[in-house]
Amino acid sequence: MEPEVVEAELVLPSYLSFKKVQMYEKYPKGQSRGRHWKHLKQIIQAENYQNYPPEEPNYVNIESPPSMHPSKKICDITGFEAPYYDPRTNLRYANTEVFKIIRSLPNEYVQRYLALRNAQVVLK
């Protein structure tokens, strides 16, 4: 090499804007890729809530009044939001395909679905 080039001590930036950044350069081995969220169980264990006074609000003893919003009506078969209900069986359904299935169910299965929702009908 020529002595002028060596003496100039050219320093190139480590990141050139026109080059694509490879994943291994962006996230070196052993480094997390993004924000790590803690679960409630991890927060409770880390905070040691047994030592707090019982009247101080925290994640464990927070009390709230019942919701003022009406509860969502969920389809008994699929679990989707159900805008309709069958007056004959009192099962909620989301669309016509589910309605056909509900009408073809025997009475014993209908009672089981209602029991899951705590809306059993006692026939005498």
Automatic annotation (TrEMBL):
Pfam families: YL1_C
Residue stretches making up the Vps72/YL1 C-terminal domain: 73-102
Biological process terms in GO annotation: chromatin remodeling
Keywords for this protein: Nucleus, Transcription, Transcription regulation
Stretches of the chain forming a coiled coil according to its record: none
Record's subcellular location: Nucleus
GO cellular component entries: Ino80 complex
Main location: nucleus
Protein name listed in UniProt: Vps72/YL1 C-terminal domain-containing protein
Organism per entry: Arachis hypogaea (Peanut)
